[in-house]
Amino acid sequence: MFFGEFEYKLDEKGRFPLPPAIRPSLKDGLILAPGTGEKCIYAYPLCEWKKLAESLKSTTVAPSKMRRLNRALFALAFDVNLDAQGRLTLPAPLKTYAGVNIEVIVAGVNNYLEIWDKETWESEKKASQEQAWQIIETLEEH
C-alpha cells in the first residue's frame, strides 16, 4: 500500500529518487502510464499492473470503448526500473503529457503512485480535499 506525499526536484538528467521505504515494493519493475483524465503519471508496481490488465479483460464495457481504454493505458505505457541509487527517469512523452518541469510530487494512492508537476498537484490536492468529505458521506449512506 502506498500513501504520503513526497516532493523532489529532477536532476539534470531528468531523474529523481523514490522514497527508500517504497523501493522494495518496486523491485520487480514499475509501469508508468498517463493518468486517465488527469495530467499526471500513474506508476504501478508490475504485480498491480498485471491485476489491472486482468480486471479489464473481464469487464462488460462495449468493445469499442474497451479498445480506446486499452490504447490509452497500454500503448502509452513504459516498463521502467529504478537505477542503483533508487532513482526514476521519466520517459519524455509522459513528462510532456503531465507537464512535469523541475519540481515533482509523488503521491501514494493505495495500490499505485501518481507523479505530478508540483504546481498542478497543488490545485488537484486542494480540489480533492474539498470534495473528500462529500464522497465519504456518500459512502456512509450505502
CATH domain fold name: Chemotaxis protein chec
Mean pLDDT: 91
Shape: globular
At the first level of CATH, the class is Alpha Beta
Strand order of the largest sheet: 1-7-8-4-3-5
Name the structural class.
Answer: alpha+beta
Q: Which oligomeric state applies?
A: single chain
CATH architecture classification name: 3-Layer(aba) Sandwich
Given the structure, what is the number of helices? 4
Strand content: 25-35%
Describe the protein's architecture and organization.
It is a single chain. The chain is of the alpha+beta class and 142 residues long. The chain has a single domain, classed as Transcriptional regulator MraZ domain (Chemotaxis protein chec, 3-Layer(aba) Sandwich). Helix content is 39%, strand content 26%. It has helices spanning 46-57, 63-75, 92-98, 118-141; strands at residues 5-9, 15-17, 30-34, 41-45, 78-80, 87-89, 103-109, 112-117. The strands form two sheets. It has a six-stranded antiparallel beta sheet with strand order 1-7-8-4-3-5. The protein has a two-stranded antiparallel sheet with strand order 2-6. The longest helix has 24 residues, at 118-141. It is globular. The two termini are 25 Å apart. One of its GO terms (cellular component) is cytoplasm. GO terms for molecular function: DNA-binding transcription factor activity; transcription cis-regulatory region binding. This is Transcriptional regulator MraZ. It is found in: Cytoplasm, Nucleoid.
